[in-house]
Amino acid sequence: MKFFRKKRVFALLFVFFVILLFYNSDWLGKWIYPIRYEQDIAVSAKNYKVDPFLIAAIIRVETNFNADKVSRKGAVGLMQLMPDTAEWIVERAGYAEETSRSLHRGDVNIEVGAWYINSLYNQFDDNQIAVLAAYNAGPGNARKWLENGTWDGTLKNIAQIPFGETRHYVQRVLYYYDKYAKLYAGRFSA
């Protein structure tokens, strides 16, 4: 008899826990989809007029907010910037030379990454989907796909992107972007 009472208690606790999770789904969503480095994201997004949720989504996909991550190809930091790209950005943006040696710092990486995203928006006529493809595959590849008709730059025709990794990357970033925009609406003031 004690065995069945324990099962009932556990079942009731489980049902209560599930109801609590669904009742307070924003809490659960923010626990599952946290945003770290919020202040750095907010400042850099404002400086370069980039959507902070897009920066957060890129960071989530690239490193899951792990500032110490270095990829097999050598990309560094939260936004996984390639050293050559970072040096180009430092030169173009007029940052101090030590900036490219500080990419492991979250604030620096986000600042340089936000500048780069803004630059990609300018290069790709504010086409967010093309910007994300260029961020992953490089602007040269994305431009080539658009110019030779391989891909039209739309989400609808994302299957036309020749690199499977880039297709998946764009889809993942957009997924997290939508999650962040819904869960944290109003978090970043304009």
Keywords:
190 residues; mainly alpha; Lysozyme; 2 domains; 9 helices
SSE topology:
Layout (H helix, E strand, L loop, with lengths): L1 H22 L1 H8 L5 H11 L3 H12 L19 H11 L12 H18 L4 H10 L1 H9 L16 H20 L7
Low-confidence stretches: none
The CATH topology of the largest domain comes to: Lysozyme
- Radius of gyration equals 20 Å
Give me the CATH architecture of the largest domain, please. Answer: Orthogonal Bundle
Main sheet: strands, sense, barrel: none
Number of helices: 9
**Basic shape:** globular
CATH class call of the largest domain: Mainly Alpha
What assembly state would you assign to the polypeptide chains in this entry? Answer: single chain
Order of helices and strands: HHHHHHHHH
Protein name: Lytic transglycosylase domain-containing protein
InterPro entries: Lysozyme-like_dom_sf, Transglycosylase_SLT_dom_1
Pfam family, one: SLT
Organism: Paenibacillus hemerocallicola
